[in-house]
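User: I'll paste a sequence; please echo it back and then give the predicted structure.

Assistant: Echoing your sequence first, then the prediction.
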Amino acid sequence: MAGIVTEKPSKPLDLMDLHPNGSETGNVPLKHGLSVNIAGLRIEPLPSPNSDDKNMSKQHTYTSLRLIRPFTFWRTCLHGIPETEWHPSIHNALAASATISLIDRQQFKGVWPNTDIYSRGIFIGAESYWIGDMIRLLPQSTPANMPDTIPTLVMQIRNIVTSFRNLRPEPDNRSVTGDACDSISITLQGSVYTLDSNKKYSSGESIPAELQRADMRNYDRDGYHWRPLSGGNHIDEDNLFAADFPAVISRLYDHEALRSWFPALLSPSPPQLLTLGTDSTLAARSHAAETDERIIGPESTTEETKSWLWSGCRAEALDLATVNGLA
C-alpha cells in the first residue's frame, strides 16, 4: 500500500524503531510498551488524482515505523510481485509523483520587474524538504564541465527560491499575481558535497568526521571522504550552489536506516549507496507525466506543465479535499 502519514506517534521515534527485533508482535515497540495506534503512525491510502472517488482516503491503518519504506524505493519493495497484485494505491502514488508545492512562503526580495520568494519547505513528488535538510542530487545537476560518472552529490539546503522574471501587471493594472511573466523557476540553494577526490571538482580537503552531520558520517569510509564541491555553478561568495527542483532525488537517508530496510542490497561502495532509488524516482516521474490527467490535459501547454504539476498546496497536489478527516 502507498499512502500518506497523517498522524505521528505520541512518543518520539529513533533508529531503534526500525529494527525487526524492536517489537514482540511486529507492531508494538518494546521500549514504549504501547499499542500500535499510540506508538505507530497513521497511514491513509492515496486515492487516484484522476478520479472524483476519494473514498480510499477515508480509510486508514496504524503501523510501526519498521514496516514503512520511502516511496523512492518502490521498485525495490515491489520486486518479484506481479503488477496485478499491487494495491491500487501504488498506481495512484505513481500518478502523483510529478507534483510540487511550496511550504510556508516567508520572504520576498526583488526589484521590479523581477522578484524572488523564499519558502521554508517544498514537496517534490512523495517527499518534503525543509531548510537545513540534506538531499541527494542527480549527477546531471552538476556543472556542464563535470562528467556524468561523478558520484551523486548531496546538498544541505540553505534556501528554497521561486524566481519570477519580467513580471507584468494583470489587465486591471491594479494587481500582480505572477501569472503574467517571462519565466518562473524553483531552485534549491545550499552547500554541496561530493565523495569524489578529484581536485578538479572538489576543494581537495576532506571534512573531519567531527564536523560532519550525523547523516553523512557512515558514508565517509572505505577510502571515500566528503569534500565540498568547488567551482562550477556556485552563486555567491559563500560557495552556495543552485539546483533546479527536478535535480532532487530524495533526502539523504541515514546509513543505518538503509541497512535496516535493505540489508541484502547494500554495496560496500558509498557512491553506489548514494544512487539507490534513483531509477525508481525517475521512472515514477516519467509515469506521472504520462498518466496524471492534470499534466497531460489540454490546458498543459508549456514545457514545465508537460512534465510537472505546480500546485498551491499539498492537498491540491494530491487532489485531496481532506487529510486525516479534516478539510
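Confidence is low (pLDDT under 50) at residues 23-32, 141-150. The longest strand covers residues 99-111.
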